[in-house]
Specification:
Function: Small GTPase required for proper nuclear import of RNA polymerase II and III (RNAPII and RNAPIII). May act at an RNAP assembly step prior to nuclear import.
Oligomer: single chain
GO molecular function: GTP binding; GTPase activity
Keywords: GTP-binding, Hydrolase, Nucleotide-binding
Bound molecules: guanosine-5'-triphosphate, magnesium ion
Structural class: alpha/beta
Order of helices and strands: EHEEHHHEHHEHEHHHEHH
CATH class of the largest domain: Alpha Beta
Strand order of the largest sheet: 3-2-4-1-5-6-7
Number of helices: 12
CATH topology of the largest domain: Rossmann fold
Number of strands: 7
CATH architecture of the largest domain: 3-Layer(aba) Sandwich
Family: Belongs to the GPN-loop GTPase family.
Helix content: 40-55%
Radius of gyration: 21 Å
Subunit structure: Binds to RNA polymerase II (RNAPII).
């Protein structure tokens, strides 16, 4: 079995920083985690990519081509489609190593995840190659500290979940940038009770809420009834926080399960054996 995290989320939410943080943490704990850069427009990141889409196609190739003449957004979709058409290239680059663990650092164009089929096709491909894939959706914590923004972030997370249909974890990034007071406020949002959050909106002077109160409440009920959305805070300056996130995702994709079983067999011998 092989293991993959599909690191996705809006522009600037912290995807590439997350990848380099995880690689560093893995090295410190004697684990190997590789990163594949899937952003054809990336200019800078702090990790050495194991595979880099820019070696196949760069965003400039799509934008500067006389015939294609794409803008930045269409160009990006074109690049990902080109990657899918060249799946042999990706397969060869990834090799075939059992038990490898790879983070896919994806572009920040939210349409790729909410309604276009390209990422779903990428997931299908990875699954065919024996990868167990978890979607890791980044949201900037600074945009999640009031009811309306929370609702909007939640809806984005939900549409990604529905579009990709794979195990999914939401990460609140940049926790180190929040003040202590704001961090405390954020607690209400981590395991959200929509009633409390919506009550906040109702009590505020939101014109939106006045007009669309029933809609907002219906959305709140969907979130609650399906227990779909939960957020894990990540502070990249705190090793425990990084380790917790990694453990959570490892459990979801059942990384290291075989090793656990072996250890358990050794630690807990069958009592009948003594007789
Ligand atoms: N303080 C702090 N800054 C962060 C954190 N994560 C990201 N940043 C900063 O936020 C900016 C964007 O981070 P990136 O990791 O490039 O975000 P991205 O999601 O890969 O962005 P795109 O690929 O352009 O969509 C950079 O200036 C980072 O240094 C964090 O946890 N803490
Ligand atoms: Mg990036």
């Amino acid at each position: 079995m092989r293991y993959a995290q599909l690191v996705i989320g809006p522009a600037g939410s912290g995807k590439s920083t997350y990848c380099s943080t995880m690689v560093k943490h893995a090295t410190d704990t004697k684990r190997i985690i590789e990163v594949v850069n899937l952003d054809p427009a990336a200019e800078h990141f702090d990790y050495t990519p194991f595979v880099d889409i820019r070696e196949l196609i760069h965003l400039d190739d799509a934008m500067e081509d006389e015939e294609l003449q794409f803008g930045p957004n269409g160009g990006l979709v074109f690049c990902i489609e080109t990657l899918l058409e060249n799946c042999d290239w990706l397969e060869e680059q990834l090799g075939d190593v059992d038990d490898d663990y790879i983070l896919f650092d994806c572009p920040g164009q939210i349409e790729l995840y909410t309604h276009l089929p390209v990422m779903r096709r990428l997931v299908d491909m990875l699954q065919r190659w024996n990868f167990r894939v978890c979607a890791v959706f980044m949201i900037d914590s600074q945009f999640m500290v009031d009811g309306a923004k929370f609702l909007s972030g939640t809806m984005a997370a939900l549409s990604v979940m529905v579009n990709l249909e794979i195990p999914h974890v939401n990460i609140l990034t940049k926790m180190d940038l929040l003040s202590k007071t704001t961090r405390r406020q954020l607690d209400d949002y981590l395991d959200p009770d929509p009633h409390i959050l919506l009550a906040d909106m109702r009590n505020g002077q939101s014109r939106w809420h006045g007009k669309y109160a029933k809609l907002t409440e219906a959305i709140g009920e969907v979130i609650e009834n399906f227990s779909l959305v939960r957020f894990y805070p990540l502070n990249i300056k705190d090793e425990d926080s990084i380790e917790n996130i990694l453990l959570t995702i490892d459990n979801i994709i059942q990384y290291g399960e075989d090793t656990d079983v072996k250890i358990r067999d050794f630690d807990e011998p069958d009592p009948d054996d003594d007789e």
